[in-house]
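User: My collaborator sent over this chain with a note saying "see what the structure looks like." That's all I know about it. Can you take a look?
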Amino acid sequence: MAVPKKYKDIKDKEPVVHLLHELDMSSTYSYSSYLRWQFDERVELIKGKVLEMSAPSVLHQRVLLRIAVKFDTASKIESCETFVAPFDVRLPGRSKANSAIFTVVQPDICVVCDAGKLDVKGCLGAPDLVVEILSPGNHQKELLIKYDLYQEFGVKEYLIVEPEKKLLLQYVLNSEGKFAEKQVFSGADVYHSSVLPDISLCPDQVFGY
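Assistant: Without extra context I'll predict from the sequence alone. Here is the result:
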Protein backbone atom coordinates (compact mmCIF):
# COMPACT_ATOMS: atom_id res chain seq x y z
CA MET A 1 0.00 0.00 0.00
CA ALA A 2 1.34 3.42 -0.93
CA VAL A 3 2.31 5.72 1.92
CA PRO A 4 0.07 8.83 1.94
CA LYS A 5 1.85 12.02 1.00
CA LYS A 6 2.53 14.43 3.85
CA TYR A 7 1.68 18.01 2.97
CA LYS A 8 4.10 20.34 4.71
CA ASP A 9 4.80 23.49 2.75
CA ILE A 10 1.97 26.01 2.63
CA LYS A 11 3.89 27.85 -0.10
CA ASP A 12 3.39 24.92 -2.47
CA LYS A 13 0.25 24.63 -4.57
CA GLU A 14 -2.46 23.68 -2.09
CA PRO A 15 -3.72 20.13 -2.66
CA VAL A 16 -7.19 18.90 -1.80
CA VAL A 17 -6.90 16.66 1.26
CA HIS A 18 -9.49 13.91 1.62
CA LEU A 19 -8.15 12.10 4.70
CA LEU A 20 -7.13 13.62 8.01
CA HIS A 21 -4.11 11.36 8.36
CA GLU A 22 -2.66 12.87 5.17
CA LEU A 23 -1.87 16.02 7.14
CA ASP A 24 1.47 16.47 8.85
CA MET A 25 0.42 17.50 12.35
CA SER A 26 3.82 19.06 13.00
CA SER A 27 3.38 21.55 10.16
CA THR A 28 1.85 25.02 10.18
CA TYR A 29 -1.26 25.57 8.07
CA SER A 30 -3.24 28.60 7.01
CA TYR A 31 -6.92 29.14 6.29
CA SER A 32 -6.08 28.63 2.60
CA SER A 33 -5.05 25.08 3.49
CA TYR A 34 -8.09 24.60 5.71
CA LEU A 35 -10.45 25.45 2.84
CA ARG A 36 -9.11 22.52 0.83
CA TRP A 37 -9.62 19.87 3.50
CA GLN A 38 -12.53 17.62 2.63
CA PHE A 39 -12.38 14.96 5.32
CA ASP A 40 -15.29 14.29 7.67
CA GLU A 41 -13.52 15.01 10.96
CA ARG A 42 -13.93 18.44 12.52
CA VAL A 43 -10.74 20.32 13.29
CA GLU A 44 -9.66 23.76 14.42
CA LEU A 45 -6.53 25.74 13.61
CA ILE A 46 -4.75 27.34 16.57
CA LYS A 47 -1.81 29.50 15.47
CA GLY A 48 -1.46 27.25 12.43
CA LYS A 49 -1.56 23.95 14.32
CA VAL A 50 -4.32 21.40 13.75
CA LEU A 51 -6.44 20.38 16.72
CA GLU A 52 -8.95 17.57 16.32
CA MET A 53 -12.40 18.05 17.84
CA SER A 54 -14.21 15.24 19.60
CA ALA A 55 -17.81 14.35 18.75
CA PRO A 56 -20.24 16.02 21.17
CA SER A 57 -22.05 13.89 23.72
CA VAL A 58 -25.80 13.80 24.33
CA LEU A 59 -25.29 15.86 27.51
CA HIS A 60 -23.22 18.41 25.60
CA GLN A 61 -25.96 18.83 22.99
CA ARG A 62 -28.73 19.18 25.56
CA VAL A 63 -26.84 21.93 27.37
CA LEU A 64 -25.89 23.67 24.13
CA LEU A 65 -29.50 23.78 22.93
CA ARG A 66 -30.80 25.22 26.21
CA ILE A 67 -28.22 27.99 26.26
CA ALA A 68 -28.44 28.75 22.54
CA VAL A 69 -32.22 29.24 22.66
CA LYS A 70 -31.84 31.80 25.46
CA PHE A 71 -28.98 33.58 23.72
CA ASP A 72 -30.77 33.67 20.38
CA THR A 73 -33.80 35.40 21.90
CA ALA A 74 -31.69 37.95 23.80
CA SER A 75 -29.32 38.64 20.89
CA LYS A 76 -32.15 39.74 18.62
CA ILE A 77 -33.07 42.46 21.12
CA GLU A 78 -29.51 43.83 20.85
CA SER A 79 -29.43 43.51 17.03
CA CYS A 80 -26.89 40.70 17.32
CA GLU A 81 -26.91 37.15 15.97
CA THR A 82 -26.28 33.84 17.71
CA PHE A 83 -24.52 30.96 15.93
CA VAL A 84 -23.81 27.39 17.00
CA ALA A 85 -21.09 24.99 15.88
CA PRO A 86 -20.11 24.02 13.29
CA PHE A 87 -19.47 27.68 12.45
CA ASP A 88 -16.03 28.94 11.47
CA VAL A 89 -14.62 31.93 13.33
CA ARG A 90 -11.44 33.25 11.70
CA LEU A 91 -9.18 35.29 13.92
CA PRO A 92 -6.83 37.29 11.67
CA GLY A 93 -3.62 39.09 12.49
CA ARG A 94 -2.55 42.14 10.50
CA SER A 95 -3.89 40.74 7.22
CA LYS A 96 -7.31 39.28 6.45
CA ALA A 97 -6.02 37.33 3.46
CA ASN A 98 -6.82 33.61 3.66
CA SER A 99 -3.14 32.71 3.40
CA ALA A 100 -2.32 34.99 6.35
CA ILE A 101 -4.97 33.65 8.75
CA PHE A 102 -3.67 30.87 11.00
CA THR A 103 -6.42 30.60 13.61
CA VAL A 104 -9.87 29.18 12.83
CA VAL A 105 -12.05 28.03 15.71
CA GLN A 106 -15.56 26.62 16.06
CA PRO A 107 -17.01 27.82 19.37
CA ASP A 108 -20.00 25.89 20.63
CA ILE A 109 -21.96 29.15 20.66
CA CYS A 110 -20.96 32.65 19.61
CA VAL A 111 -22.74 35.99 19.47
CA VAL A 112 -21.79 38.53 16.81
CA CYS A 113 -23.04 42.11 17.09
CA ASP A 114 -21.06 43.57 14.18
CA ALA A 115 -22.73 42.39 10.98
CA GLY A 116 -19.68 43.56 9.04
CA LYS A 117 -17.74 40.57 10.43
CA LEU A 118 -20.12 38.06 8.85
CA ASP A 119 -19.68 36.59 5.38
CA VAL A 120 -20.58 33.40 3.55
CA LYS A 121 -17.75 31.50 5.28
CA GLY A 122 -18.65 32.49 8.85
CA CYS A 123 -17.20 35.21 11.06
CA LEU A 124 -14.03 37.15 10.25
CA GLY A 125 -12.88 38.69 13.52
CA ALA A 126 -13.65 38.18 17.19
CA PRO A 127 -17.27 37.53 18.19
CA ASP A 128 -18.60 39.66 21.03
CA LEU A 129 -19.40 36.61 23.16
CA VAL A 130 -18.15 33.04 23.01
CA VAL A 131 -19.47 29.98 24.86
CA GLU A 132 -17.46 26.77 25.14
CA ILE A 133 -19.03 23.67 26.71
CA LEU A 134 -16.46 21.39 28.28
CA SER A 135 -16.35 17.66 27.76
CA PRO A 136 -14.01 15.13 29.43
CA GLY A 137 -11.55 15.31 26.53
CA ASN A 138 -11.25 19.06 26.06
CA HIS A 139 -10.90 20.67 29.50
CA GLN A 140 -7.29 21.73 29.09
CA LYS A 141 -7.78 23.12 25.59
CA GLU A 142 -10.71 25.33 26.57
CA LEU A 143 -9.32 26.43 29.94
CA LEU A 144 -5.79 27.22 28.78
CA ILE A 145 -5.36 27.56 25.02
CA LYS A 146 -8.66 29.20 24.19
CA TYR A 147 -8.67 31.45 27.24
CA ASP A 148 -5.45 33.05 26.00
CA LEU A 149 -6.66 33.06 22.41
CA TYR A 150 -9.98 34.80 23.06
CA GLN A 151 -8.32 37.34 25.33
CA GLU A 152 -5.65 38.10 22.72
CA PHE A 153 -8.17 38.70 19.94
CA GLY A 154 -10.56 40.78 22.04
CA VAL A 155 -13.61 38.61 22.69
CA LYS A 156 -15.66 40.78 25.06
CA GLU A 157 -17.13 37.92 27.07
CA TYR A 158 -16.12 34.28 27.42
CA LEU A 159 -18.45 31.81 29.11
CA ILE A 160 -17.18 28.34 30.00
CA VAL A 161 -19.83 25.73 30.78
CA GLU A 162 -18.85 22.73 32.92
CA PRO A 163 -21.67 20.13 32.74
CA GLU A 164 -19.93 17.64 35.05
CA LYS A 165 -19.56 20.20 37.86
CA LYS A 166 -22.75 22.05 36.88
CA LEU A 167 -20.94 25.40 36.77
CA LEU A 168 -20.86 28.48 34.57
CA LEU A 169 -17.57 30.42 34.51
CA GLN A 170 -17.75 33.98 33.16
CA TYR A 171 -14.82 36.12 32.01
CA VAL A 172 -15.36 39.71 30.85
CA LEU A 173 -12.74 41.76 29.01
CA ASN A 174 -11.71 44.86 30.95
CA SER A 175 -10.48 48.25 29.69
CA GLU A 176 -6.92 46.92 29.57
CA GLY A 177 -7.86 44.12 27.19
CA LYS A 178 -7.58 41.42 29.85
CA PHE A 179 -10.18 39.02 31.17
CA ALA A 180 -11.23 40.14 34.63
CA GLU A 181 -11.39 37.71 37.53
CA LYS A 182 -13.82 34.92 36.73
CA GLN A 183 -17.35 34.86 38.10
CA VAL A 184 -18.59 31.39 39.06
CA PHE A 185 -22.28 30.49 38.96
CA SER A 186 -23.85 27.34 40.39
CA GLY A 187 -27.27 26.12 41.53
CA ALA A 188 -29.78 28.96 41.66
CA ASP A 189 -27.19 31.71 41.05
CA VAL A 190 -28.27 34.06 38.26
CA TYR A 191 -25.85 34.69 35.41
CA HIS A 192 -26.13 37.98 33.53
CA SER A 193 -24.25 38.57 30.31
CA SER A 194 -22.23 41.76 29.84
CA VAL A 195 -22.93 41.62 26.11
CA LEU A 196 -26.60 40.64 26.25
CA PRO A 197 -28.20 42.44 29.24
CA ASP A 198 -31.51 40.63 28.78
CA ILE A 199 -29.95 37.25 29.47
CA SER A 200 -30.97 35.76 32.81
CA LEU A 201 -29.73 32.21 33.26
CA CYS A 202 -29.05 29.95 36.21
CA PRO A 203 -27.21 26.62 36.25
CA ASP A 204 -30.25 24.81 37.64
CA GLN A 205 -32.05 25.67 34.40
CA VAL A 206 -29.12 24.74 32.19
CA PHE A 207 -28.31 21.44 33.90
CA GLY A 208 -31.81 20.37 34.89
CA TYR A 209 -31.67 17.04 33.06
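A starting point for your reply to your collaborator: DSSP finds four helices and twelve strands in the chain.
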